């Protein structure tokens, strides 16, 4: 498996405005929605303007696309890739960029890494093509931080299986989930500056502490040396806006409150 995409020019979310763009990734049932709910609760309690959204389905159009993708009939591989990209294009243009422009924190439940990892695991389309399609769709917008919740597929499937109905992708065999996990880990290894990998095979509280610590590190990297180190291994550091304004005051307060719980990466 090749991951040449590490050489592509990156465009972290903060280039779309003074906000922060966070994505949660990982296989089905690893705890993405649970952790996003907890993190957004903490951020909102600290007074941070926070948009929680998801892909597919973060917009009205996206909800229709999501229904077609997850609960409709057969979708051929290229049509599937284009539908995810269409959802992403509309989501980024109408929700994500406006929120970043006003200085908010955007937390998305899945983003382009899911498309790349799922296609990579399915072996039907090239990872590079799928990534390029998403970058075209989003005009190059990448998260400032991607939190990969990593767990052994059996555990994730058991958690997911406790819910009533499994959707189309969750009915795939477990060898698919093993390959999917490997794809996600390979993506994280290729972009260590953007990704944080968290062991999701632990209690909700323990995982939440790791998530909070990762976000605190991101905020500190921006507030303590703006324009200097940002968690992004690319040549665009100089374009990262200087964090200013009320949004960053709230983020700094959040980092001060939870910074004491710093846990090793
Ligand atoms: N750390 C954890 N330990 C035990 N159970 C958990 C943990 N995190 C989440 N769960 C439970 O596992 C199930 C799946 O969690 P959740 O819906 O957050 O996962 P998800 O990654 O969003 O799944 P999906 O990809 O299907 O949306 C839920 O019932 C949730 O309560
Ligand atoms: Mg979920």
Q: How many domain regions?
A: 1
What does the largest sheet look like? 5 strands, parallel
Helical stretch tally? 9
Distance between the termini: 26 Å
EC number: 2.7.4.9
Protein name: Thymidylate kinase
Organism: Actinomyces urogenitalis DSM 15434
Catalytic activity: dTMP + ATP = dTDP + ADP
Summarize the structure.
By secondary structure, the chain is of the alpha/beta class.
Label this structure with key terms.
265 residues; alpha/beta; five-stranded parallel sheet; disordered N terminus; binds adenosine-5'-triphosphate; binds magnesium ion; Thymidylate_kin-like_dom; P-loop_NTPase; Thymidylate_kin_CS; ATP binding
Description:
With 265 residues, the chain is an alpha/beta fold. It has a single domain (18-160, 167-223), classed as P-loop containing nucleotide triphosphate hydrolases (Rossmann fold), CATH 3.40.50. 51% of the residues lie in helices and 10% in strands. The protein has helices spanning 32-45, 60-71, 77-101, 112-122, 127-138, 153-161, 174-190, 204-224, 245-258, and strands at 20-25, 50-54, 105-109, 145-150, 195-199. Helix 2 (60-71) runs antiparallel to helix 3 (77-101) and helix 3 runs parallel beside helix 5. It is globular, with a radius of gyration of 17 Å. Bound molecules: adenosine-5'-triphosphate (ATP) and magnesium ion (MG). Magnesium ion (MG) is lined by residues 32-33, 109. Residues 26, 28-34, 159-160, 162, 202-204, 207 line the site of adenosine-5'-triphosphate. Its EC number is 2.7.4.9. One of its GO terms (biological process) is dUDP biosynthetic process. Residues 24-210 form the Thymidylate kinase-like domain. Keywords: ATP-binding, Kinase, Nucleotide biosynthesis, Nucleotide-binding, Transferase.
